[in-house]
User: Which sequence fits this backbone?
């Protein structure tokens, strides 16, 4: 075992690093810009130099690289302070679906602009009545001439307010079983009848939206996959979601928790000397290091040409609750001050409080803890699916709750 | 990045798993559990014939000179099989003690015999609950006196590495077959691994390493052993998950397999998560052990804490998944429940190793 790059990987890393050193924009070049403008500036620069969308074919604006190069690029880019990306959903989820189901003409029209960041895409999947049970969605699509007419509501749509296009799953036939009556489209977010309302979160941010559709017309040419095949198309999108939402770096970790425990007192002594504090730190280190070395094993498999599978769900399933527990623990270490959330008064400008208030979202977005556990149980361990009360029943006869 | 075992090591794993399926099926574990013997002597001899005892002993001492990756693979498979053998005491601790602290003469005398399986070693560090310093055992003028409890594998072993008290502690090498050594069997939670109370009353013994260096040597030895025991724990935890999975798939309640209920699915998914984190930490432990990395104390403590927790969780929830049948003597769930507790205690508890882990983190953050 070793932690070294292969010769080719090392050469790629060196090339990436050299380009980044020469081309990452200085903070004052983009600090005054809005989130979207700053992100576009950086994305365009990468695209022009051939560093956008490492794994995509060159003809669509990518680099034609492989999975391990994508990982190496991500590692190197994250060492710099760059404008935060707003392209993850478009490039990570919409684009693979377009590659699998769109016409050649559509691919040529849309993919390069996705790669360059000129156009931003969002994902219109979840609904008030269809979250974890996504296929229970109700947004209606009805054929009218060469168009489809869309009516209904989507929710939890990240970035809808600045997106140019969206991928959309609808119910085209409510008289057949749940998974069989769905049809998948993409649409222009500026279409008449699309209304976007931001959702304010408990953390104070508003990253998500509700999107309402009132008689929105979509040409049949923007259908992806056959009528009634929307679920199969949606699975292509979702598989890519699981690959792109990993553990990531959490804002509260063993390093800053330990540093805090060294600064504050417990029973008149540094908190780090307390046995309970040490036991907790040890357990979190086991999780953090365990995830890190699991990702090393995944990278090794990728560099041998294998594709990461459903076992990757472990990153979010462990990482998100851990961040929440650690944030609460750190706030406890601050005693009465722990509940203060004022960047001027809180330790480390309030990141523990911010993490505490944000982490409930981490445990839900992109598959709840419970769904992640189901994925491991069903797709890694091969256990049977739960019994489904709606199986085989026409969708319009499935019992529903009050919402 | 190459964070995988070599093809050679994977080949050895396959061979080891096949060998143990053949020679250490559940009936062999049960024979020791129910019988009068404290270990499986026939299996112990066959393992020696396979050359596993010789794996990391250098060729100049009659060993195979393999890497520690190979030994980790063997440890995982022994743990999976819950093998009732003195292998760990002899290979992970006694052999390592000789390699680390033995004189040329001691190495020449014991290592070839250990490699050939002609001798088995063990270790006697503990004396009483919670006591990790001020040990009462003493070596003076070549005579060893004191009481050690619990000591593993005394029935199988020819010699023991004994930790004695005094400033800094010292190690002694004692012939267990000689006079002045009295061993009484001690009933343990794990009936498949024999342990004893050993009274040394002026037994002939010699120093192993310098006087006053014993505690420091044992600390280093236990870091190394912790990685290997953690691989046994990971193997055992995986076996417990597999038992639970198989039972849940075949057991029906309310008209469907219990494996289709989320309460069971999430329990098994949690086992998988803990086992995976432990396994990945053990990978790093294997690397740190084989390369003798400066990070070994942290890597070892992380592997051990993860291994203890994963094996504890998997073995207890395996019984829970089986319902009442899991609590019966007839079912094999007890093998891992017993073994997980023994391995959680044998070279220091979760509490001790969590503390070591954080100490190692403090050191690396101060450096």
Assistant:
């Amino acid at each position: 075992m070793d932690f070294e790059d292969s010769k080719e990987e090392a050469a790629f890393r060196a090339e990436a690093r050299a380009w980044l050193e020469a081309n990452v924009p200085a903070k004052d070049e983009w600090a005054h810009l809005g989130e979207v403008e700053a992100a576009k500036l950086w994305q365009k620069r990468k695209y022009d130099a051939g560093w956008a969308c490492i794994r995509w074919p060159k003809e669509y604006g990518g680099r034609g690289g492989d999975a391990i190069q994508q990982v190496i690029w991500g590692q190197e880019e994250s060492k710099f302070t760059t404008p935060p990306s707003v392209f993850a959903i478009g490039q990570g989820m919409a684009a693979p679906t377009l590659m699998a189901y769109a016409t050649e003409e559509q691919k040529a029209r849309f993919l390069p602009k996705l790669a360059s960041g000129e156009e931003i895409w969002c994902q219109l999947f979840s609904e008030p009545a269809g979250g974890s049970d996504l296929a229970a969605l109700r947004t209606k699509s009805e054929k009218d001439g060469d168009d489809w007419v869309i009516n209904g509501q989507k929710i939890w749509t990240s970035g809808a307010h600045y997106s140019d296009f969206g991928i959309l799953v609808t119910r085209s036939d409510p008289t057949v079983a749940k998974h069989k009556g769905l049809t998948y489209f993409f649409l222009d977010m500026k279409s008449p009848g699309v209304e976007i309302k931001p959702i304010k979160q408990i953390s104070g941010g508003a990253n998500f939206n509700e999107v309402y559709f009132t008689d929105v017309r979509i040409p049949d040419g923007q259908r992806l996959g056959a009528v009634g095949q929307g679920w199969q198309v949606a699975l292509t999108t979702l598989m890519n979601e699981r690959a792109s939402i990993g553990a990531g770096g959490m804002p509260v970790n063993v390093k800053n928790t330990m540093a805090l425990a060294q600064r504050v007192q417990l029973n008149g002594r540094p908190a780090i000397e307390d046995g309970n504090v040490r036991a907790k730190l040890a357990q979190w280190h086991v999780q953090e290091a365990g995830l890190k070395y699991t990702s090393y094993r995944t990278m090794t498999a990728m560099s041998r040409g294998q594709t990461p599978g459903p076992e990757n769900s472990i990153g979010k399933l462990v990482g998100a609750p851990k961040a929440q527990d650690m944030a609460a623990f750190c706030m406890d270490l601050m005693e009465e001050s722990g509940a203060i959330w004022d960047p001027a008064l809180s330790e480390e400008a309030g990141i523990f409080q911010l993490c505490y208030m944000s982490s409930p979202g981490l445990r839900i977005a992109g598959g709840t803890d419970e769904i992640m556990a189901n994925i491991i149980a069903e797709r890694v361990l091969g256990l049977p699916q739960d019994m489904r009360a709606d199986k085989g029943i026409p969708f319009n006869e499935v019992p529903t709750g009050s919402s | 990045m190459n964070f995988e075992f070599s093809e050679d090591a994977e080949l050895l794993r396959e061979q080891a798993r096949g060998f143990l399926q053949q020679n250490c099926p559940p009936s062999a574990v049960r024979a020791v559990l129910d019988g009068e013997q404290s270990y499986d002597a026939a299996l112990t001899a066959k393992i020696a014939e396979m050359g596993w005892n010789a794996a990391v002993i250098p060729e100049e001492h009659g060993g195979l000179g393999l890497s520690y990756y190979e030994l980790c693979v063997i440890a995982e498979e022994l743990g999976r099989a819950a093998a009732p053998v003195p292998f760990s005491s002899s290979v992970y601790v006694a052999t390592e003690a000789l390699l680390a602290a033995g004189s040329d003469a001691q190495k020449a005398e014991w290592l070839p015999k250990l490699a050939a399986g002609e001798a088995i070693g063990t270790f006697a560090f503990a004396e009483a609950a919670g006591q990790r310093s001020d040990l009462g055992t003493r070596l003076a003028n070549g005579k060893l006196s004191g009481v050690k409890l619990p000591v593993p594998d005394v029935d199988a072993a020819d010699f023991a590495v004994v930790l004695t008290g005094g400033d800094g502690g010292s190690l002694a090498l004692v012939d267990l077959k000689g006079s002045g050594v009295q061993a009484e069997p001690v009933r343990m939670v794990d009936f498949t691994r024999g342990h004893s109370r050993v009274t040394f009353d002026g037994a002939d013994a010699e120093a192993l390493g310098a006087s006053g260096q014993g505690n420091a040597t044992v600390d280093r030895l236990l870091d190394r052993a912790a990685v290997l025991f953690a691989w046994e724990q990971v193997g055992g935890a995986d076996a417990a998950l597999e038992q639970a999975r198989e039972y849940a798939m075949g057991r029906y309640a309310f008209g469907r397999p219990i494996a289709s209920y989320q309460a069971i699915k999430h329990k098994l998914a949690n086992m998988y998560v803990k086992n995976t984190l432990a396994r990945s930490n053990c990978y790093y432990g294997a690397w740190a052990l084989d390369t003798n990395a400066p990070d070994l104390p942290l890597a070892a403590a992380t592997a051990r804490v993860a291994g203890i927790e994963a094996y504890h969780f998997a073995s207890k929830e395996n019984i829970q998944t089986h319902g009442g049948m899991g609590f019966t003597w007839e079912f094999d769930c007890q093998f891992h429940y017993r073994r997980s507790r023994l391995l959680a205690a044998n070279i220091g508890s979760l509490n001790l190793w969590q503390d070591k882990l954080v100490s190692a983190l403090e050191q690396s953050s101060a450096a």
